[in-house]
Design brief:
Layout lengths: L10 E11 L12 E5 L5 H16 L9 H9 L3 E6 L2 E11 L3 E8 L9 H15 L3 E7 L3 H9 L3 E11 L3
Helix pairs in contact: 1-2
């Protein structure tokens, strides 16, 4: 009988993600009167609110805002975080987490619950993908296999599944 080299209680978190990329078939999802805007320093409070919501929605973890200041500061400092504005109100965020000569990986796609089902996530990801494609980059992202809504959104706007990633986080203490 095979015995694993780690104990089950050492696993902190595990999940399966689908790897998506867009090549040429991007559906430009348009929502009138809305736009993707670059982050301003004055937007730090809304980014914090969205980050806390994102962590809770994705991982089920309630985080303390004060402890998240370094994370939010680093998101802002990288200058790759974009906000979705509707009638002068910020309604969502999307980030470029990694960029190489060929690819740009998108993450932290978030709209608060009261702004969902309005097409904002589709529109902001589509808009960011158009920007990246115009820069000669291939947009890609990872989506939790259990998140049916986000997987549907990404496929609808032109992402195609290109792989699967199994993620396991261990506690070595």
């Amino acid at each position: 009988m095979f015995k694993p080299f780690f104990k089950e209680e050492k696993i902190l978190n595990q999940g399966t993600f689908l790897d998506y990329e867009v090549q040429f078939n991007l559906f430009h999802y348009i929502v009138e009167g809305k736009e993707l805007i670059a982050l301003k320093t004055s937007d730090k409070d809304i980014v914090m609110k969205f980050w806390v919501g994102f962590v809770f929605d994705c991982f089920g973890i309630n985080v303390i805002e004060e402890k998240q200041i370094p994370v939010v500061d680093s998101l802002i400092k990288c200058e790759k975080l974009y906000l979705w504005e509707v009638d002068n109100e910020i309604c969502g965020m999307v980030n470029i987490i990694h960029q190489s000569e060929r690819y740009a990986r998108i993450n932290n796609v978030y709209t608060p619950s009261e702004e969902r089902k309005k097409g904002y996530a589709s529109a902001m990801v589509s808009e960011l993908c158009s920007k990246l494609i115009n820069e000669g980059l291939i947009p890609m992202l990872y989506a939790d296999i259990k998140n049916c809504d986000s997987n549907k959104v990404y496929k609808t706007i032109g992402f195609t599944e290109s792989g699967r990633i199994d993620n396991i986080v261990f506690n070595y203490k």
